Amino acid sequence: MAPGPSGTATGVTVSIARDPALVRTVRLVAAAVARRTGRDEDFVEEVRLAVGEACALLLGDDTDPLREPVTVAISIEDGLAVDVVSVGTVDTEDPPHSDIDGVEPWALLRGLIEDFTVLQDGATTTVSMSWPAA
Question: Which residues constitute the domain of residue 126?
Fold first, then answer.
C-alpha cells in the first residue's frame, strides 16, 4: 500500500495469474481494504463481491498461466476506487444463455454497483468501479 498524507496506507495493487482459484485472494484483499474506509459490513461485502465478479469476468475462460496477469488496483484516497485490468478484449455484454444459476454475469456486476465503466483500449480491458466516501 502507498502511504497517504497522514502516513497511513491509501491503496494496494495485486496481480494474479490467470487461475480462477486466485479470485478468492483478490476478494479477501478487496474486503480488507474496504474495511479501512470505516463503512459497515454490507458495504464491505458489496465491494468484495463486485471486485471478485469483475476479476472473474476479465479472467474469463482464459486460464493460461503464461498470459499476462490480471491486475487489481484499489485506492481509498477519496472514497473507494478499483481498477481491474486484463490484457485481452472481453465481450462486455451477456450473450444469450450465458446465465449461471439464473444470473447473467455482467448483469450481476451492474446490479452490485452503479458507478462502473468498462474501457477497451487496444488489447487491454479495464473495469473501473468507485464508491463515494461515506
Answer: 11-131
